[in-house]
C-alpha cells in the first residue's frame, strides 16, 4: 500500500514539470501580431468578413465588429446602429471590399489594410483595422479617408 502511494506521488511530481506544447512563451504574448498575417485563424476571419461584406450580411457583419467600432472622424457620430446606413449613403461598400482584398500589416495592436497605412505616416486614404478581442478577431474600424480626430 505504501509502495503504491509512493509510486503515485513520484509519477505526479515527475509528470508535473513536463513541457507541454500548448503553452505560450512570454515573448509570444508580447508580440501577438508579428506573424498574424499568416495565421490560419486570421485568414479564416478575413475570408468570412469578405463574404459578409460582399453579401452585405448585416447581422454577420455586426457580430464581426468590435463594440466601439470606428467609422467616422466626427465625435458626434451616431451609435453603431447607423454604421451600415452611413456606408450606404456614402457608397462605401466597394471601398471596404477593396481594402479587404489587399494585404494586412501589423500596426500596434491592429492588423491594418492597406499596408501603406502602417508604413507611411503621411498616408491619407481609406483604411481598416482588425484586432484580437478576447481571443477572436474583430473588425475595429473602417475609415474611408484620412482625417484627424478633433
Describe what this molecule looks like in 3D.
The protein has 150 residues and is an alpha+beta fold. It has seven helices and five strands, in the order H-H-H-H-E-H-H-E-E-H-E-E. Strands 1-5-4-3-2 form a five-stranded mixed sheet. A hairpin with a 2-residue loop joins strand 4 (127-133) and strand 5. The radius of gyration is 22 Å and the shape is globular.
Quaternary structure annotation = single chain
Q: How does the overall form come out from the CA principal axes?
A: globular
* Low-confidence residue ranges: 25-30
Instruction: Return the structural class.
Output: alpha+beta
Secondary structure: helix percent: 40-55%
- Outline the biggest β-sheet: 5 strands, mixed
Beta percentage is 15-25%
The end-to-end span amounts to 75 Å
Which sequence of strands runs across the widest sheet?
Answer: 1-5-4-3-2
| Total helical elements | 7
Q: How would you state the average pLDDT, rounded? A: 78
Rounded to an integer in angstroms, the radius of gyration calculated over CA atoms is 22 Å
Give the secondary structure arrangement, pairings included:
Layout lengths: L1 H15 L9 H5 L9 H16 L2 H6 L1 E6 L12 H7 L3 H9 L3 E3 L2 E4 L1 H5 L7 E7 L2 E8 L7
Parallel strand pairs: 1-5
Antiparallel strand pairs: 2-3, 3-4, 4-5
Q: Nutshell version of this structure?
A:
With 150 residues, the protein is α+β, with helices and mostly antiparallel strands. It is 42% helix and 19% strand.
Keywords:
150 residues; alpha+beta; five-stranded mixed sheet; 7 helices; 5 strands; 42% helix; globular
